[in-house]
Amino acid sequence: MSDDQRFTPKGIVPTPEQLAIQLGRHKRVIVEANAGAAKTTTLALRLAQALARGADPDRILALTYTDAAVLAMKKALERIGVAAAVRNRLKIRTFDDFCRARLQHIEGGNVHHHDKPEQLKPYVLQAIERVMLNPDERHSDEFAVEGNGEVMVESLLNAFARLKGTLQWAMEAADKVLTPALADELGHDYLTLRVFWAYEAIRRGGHPDHPAFRAPHDATYDLACMLLGEDAFVDLTPPLALGLHLVLVDEMHDTNRAMFTVLRHLLAQNPQTAFVGVGDRDQVIHAVAGADASFMADTFEREIGPAERLPLTASYRFGPTLAASVSRLSNKAYESLSSIQTDVKLITLEEPREANWHIIELIRQRTGLAPQSTLSELAILLRQPHQSVALENHLLDKGVDYRTSGFDTYLMRPEVLFVRGLIACAQDSFAGIEQIDTRVRILQAMLMFAGSFVESDQDSPEDRLKAQLDAIKEVAHAPDLVGVFLNNQILRNASAQVRHRIEAAIGIASVNTTEVLLDRFVQALSPQTLAARVMVQASDIEQVSANIQGLIASAATFDNVASFFRAMNEREIRQQGMRGKDCVVLSSIEAAKGLEFDHVIMPGLNKGEFAIGGNTADNRNLLYVGMTRARQRLTILCERRRPSQYLVDAGLL
User: Fold this and answer.
1) What pLDDT sits at residue 79?
2) Phi, psi dihedrals of residue 197, rounded to the nearest 5°
3) Whole-model pTM?
4) Which of 82, 128, 552, 602 has a CA 20 to 30 Å removed from the CA of 150?
């Protein structure tokens, strides 16, 4: 095509700001954007313009922080009219997926991947043990460990994530001897850094070519560390020399030092490539892992080079009323050029239970939805998953279809499956759970929370797990065996304390009165204690307890435990039979990032409930992200007696 060929998108007329970004010819561009200013669509326009000028689709790379942003970019390209055959050739990846693929090319094989903190916990405990038993340790008086260190696992994993995201050790202390004084200088305690060393030694497994395992973002960290090694690729082709024509980064505000290091070397090893990055400094929600908006500001200029800075300021998603509120919340200028007059409503409640009634009414009246819109244009954004329990029950009982995003439906959460299994055993009603897959998941959850296992004569861990799954499937298909399985496997192989709690909870559920269930079940089971044995993060442990308490509280409207149990099973069948598209979206705020809806409902904007851990930048930015997903209507619900301070800051109170 001609070098002057302009790409004409379908369905939209680019604004002057968008055209400046689409048609610009500066080698490096950073777009400073506001929420609702069509960041991803604008980036797609720039990509499509490169294609129109003759860029090879195989030599274009788009990087993001999240899988949701990858999907949003693909949808934006489809929406503006880039042909499917071309879209399928483009490399659109998260940073970690891209780094994992490059490491696989370097290492010549796959590395086992762990997704959950619970999978990492044994390695952290092993690292603690190594440090504590090291006979050559000269500063053991610095160590204070309770028990085997289980209470430290969450804080250690958080510290590891920050150390890796910031590359702090690799860049500031790699050639230094670790001492308590150096640890203080780095802002970490000595024990944390010692355990980090030991954990990384375990993770790397002593293998010369590749680690024993990786967790999320480890690929980015490993590749960044490799790139920092001056002699790492002396005799090899630089691993990022891919002959790229264009590199784009969406969500650039969430870039951390490890990601930026990969980006810096990517641009250096592809000197002919153009670069465009887009971000909104007020959407940083991963600061705990080192995300820093400076990487799209002065750090970029200093370490990569000057960039043309283009604005994408005006929101075309929502109107001036919402723009004024988010402007006050974020303390920056915010203009709306949208023809939409977004309605912003704050509903104050006398009692928390009123929230679900209001939500049902808003859905029934299709508030904020155009006549042609489906219910999928209405999203309820929740700060914590446990807030969905009572709400899902209301939606199910009122016949409102919904789908969840960012968390499982409450009926399929492990802790809820665990309780359903206990009640099934108490009522001798395991056969009443219709879905075989659900029975399997219930038995797995019971084993997990009991800290138990199925006895096997197999030698390898893999074979033992397979034998356990086979036994679970056998019971799932023959529910009359569940009592034997409970006694001979789950209870017999659990600790005495756990066995006592489970037996007490089953005994209470067998009484078959909801009053007894409500009064005594949670206290007898002590879900927070059970969860702490198998989970790592305090927030996850609290969610387990909150989910179970919410579930048991929902039994109050039933005459007996048996009818409550039947209702759970009926709700599961109802939930699984819902329509996949024309339904309300029930989502975490994080999962909604990058998306937009006609009507956004945000319940629970209460003091101490929304700002988890206090008034942090991440919490404020989460509210900013949630509010700016709305087009036609934003509805916020809070209790009259304890509204969040953020509502005052946003000018809503």
Assistant:
1) 93
2) -55, -50
3) 0.75
4) 552
